[in-house]
Write a structure and sequence with these properties.
The structure holds two protein chains of two kinds. Chain A is an all-alpha fold. Chain A is built from eleven helices and no strands. Chain A has two domains: 78 residues, Protocatechuate 4,5-dioxygenase, Chain A (Orthogonal Bundle), CATH 1.10.700.10; 35 residues, no CATH class. Chain A is globular and about 45 Å long. In chain B, helix 1 crosses helix 4 and helix 3 crosses helix 5. Chain B starts with a strand and ends with a strand. Classes of the chains: A mainly alpha, B alpha/beta. The interface between A and B is large, with 61 and 47 residues.
Amino acid sequence: MAEQYVGPPYRYQKRSTMALDKPYLDVPGTTVFDTDQAAKGYHLNQFAMSLMRAENRERFKADPDACLDECPMTGEQKQAVRDRDFNRMIELGGNIYFLAKIGATDGLDYVQIVSSMTENDADAHTEMMLNGGRSPDGNRYLHEWQHERERD
Amino acid sequence: MARITASVYTSHVPAIGVAMDLGRTETPYYAPLFAGYRPAREWMADNTPDVVVLVFNDHANAFSLEMVPTFALGMSARYEPADEGWGARPVPPVVGHPALSAHIAHSVIREDFDLTLVNDMPVDHGCTVPLSIMFGQPDAWPCRVVPLVVNVVQYPVPSGRRCLELGKAIRRAVERFDEDLDVQVWGTGGMSHQLQGPRAGLINQEWDNEFLDRMINDPEGQAAVEHVEYVREAGSEGIELVMWLVARGAMADLAGGGAPTEVHRFYHVPASNTAAGQLILEDAPD
């Protein structure tokens, strides 16, 4: 697995010390969209949601900066959208079902959007899926990925 | 009186709908999947219900982050297919059953399930893809639909236990509805898949098949499984499988009756990013 996809920045860096029970923070390569993420990503997700309307998709394609400037999301979120960096958008509070509408506006399907977050391109991702997908073995706990990084 | 006749379980992968809409069901990629669906369609042709209580999740189409209802029941006479960003699917509108919706709402809210009642909503692939899988491409869907939309997108999502208990309450409600109707409950979504992050593409065939076994034989046990196991073992979007427990809860064996009959079970990898599963359980006769 390529180094740049394994490491930070992911949720375990920002592990909450509050009393809320979030056992899912221990799953590697995964950001569970919870109420904290939703609060962080509200405007990013609502912007993506606006692309459900064909006229908004056309407008965003014609003048992306104008559309982004109208939206009260953070500069980091805007840059992640400009970069089409879906991992970064998710880290900043995006949720895949909202963000997929940005990919849809670009004419991408779910395999293309999803594979962009992994070590694979769309063809290699499709091949992996045809071969049974990514195994859960070695992919269940953060420490399994940290060991892998140390080995690399 | 109305009666529950069967429960149906299926994935609702959007690419399956696209494959049908674009006439790609006989391609080498999709032919095995649709061959696996054939027995379900044949059974359905002989067992078409009057109404389906269709349990699915909205994927940021009917509901934005303005409102995140945990359980939302559709109350309308008609639901339009949503434009999810690629244009609306070319499928018929979904025809509702407002009187049954109102009855279910009245009954289950009084049993402490705090449903959100929705009078106006589009329905996305979570609803239309199961209809396409089970009914093909008719000019109009052959039955009415009461949509039950479960939040499985923003955590915390309802527990498996809560979903199973809601299914039991829906059975009690349907059995008290004073109209002669055959009603099926469909639980949709899953199976294992993860659509985000570097772990995307996760599939767990062993876990999925054990889930199918437990859905049939030990739904109460499955209802006790914590969310984090779904995330860890079946991927972040595999949590959709808790919705199957609503349909399972509506079967007679959980209300003191006989065990359901398994008439169809199918599992296939992949459908796009996802493991596709399908199960049909006929309710025990009275």
